[in-house]
Amino acid sequence: MLATGWKITQLFVGFCMVIISKAGNPSSNRPYDLSKLLQRATNYFVYEDTFIKDKIIPGNPLPTCGRWFIVTDALDAKRLYEPSQAAYSVEKKVQLVLEGEPGSSVKSSMKVNNYDGPQKGQTIVTMDLNYTDYQSCALLYYRDSGDYEVWNFQLNFKNNTECHQKLTTELPGKPLTVYYRDWCYAGFLEG
């Protein structure tokens, strides 16, 4: 009886230590679920990121107005951007393949694969969902380059999301590229 009580006490103490250690920084330890985040026929507006060249559409200038559009339940998607107010928008169709840790039902990362052409099915980048509140924003991490990207779920021209705050406080040395301009998504807003 005493031995059983001792095991429970040790287990309880260990459980309390785990709770204390995870309470400090929720974004780095908690797995966030991309399958709960990504929905069919939904726009995700790229607010800002930390890279110099676009990882999804290489060879083009960084987007001034960027967004993701999820097209189907199979997670076919488009990455779109307008390089300037006068230029035509550029897009690339991709397929998002969700992945999780072995033995986990949580899908916290995704491969962004070419949708068509000679490189169909080839992975362009792998992204991890670093943080989301599932209501207003998501902070994604590019595994291969160590860069980050903030998605806003609604048009939001101010830096007031939790994701923006996490990006600027946790990565103070990284340069940020902010994509929003007051003319961004004029057709989207009208239609």
Structure description:
It contains 5 helices and 9 strands. The protein has 191 residues and is an alpha+beta fold. It has one domain: Beta Barrel (Lipocalin), CATH 2.40.128.20. An 8-stranded antiparallel β-barrel has the order 1-2-3-4-5-6-7-8. A hairpin with a 5-residue loop joins strand 2 (65-70) and strand 3 (76-82). Residues 1-27 have low confidence and may be disordered. Residues 1-23 form the signal peptide.
CATH topology: Lipocalin
CATH class: Mainly Beta
- Name the CATH superfamily assignment: Calycin beta-barrel core domain
Give a short account of the largest sheet. 8 strands, antiparallel, barrel
Mean pLDDT: 76
Percent range for β-strand residues: 25-35%
Uncertain runs are 1-27
Describe this structure in a few short sentences:
This protein is α+β, with helices and mostly antiparallel strands and 191 residues long. The protein has helices at 2-23, 26-29, 34-37, 162-170, 186-190, and strands at residues 42-49, 65-70, 76-82, 90-99, 109-114, 123-132, 137-142, 147-152, 177-178.
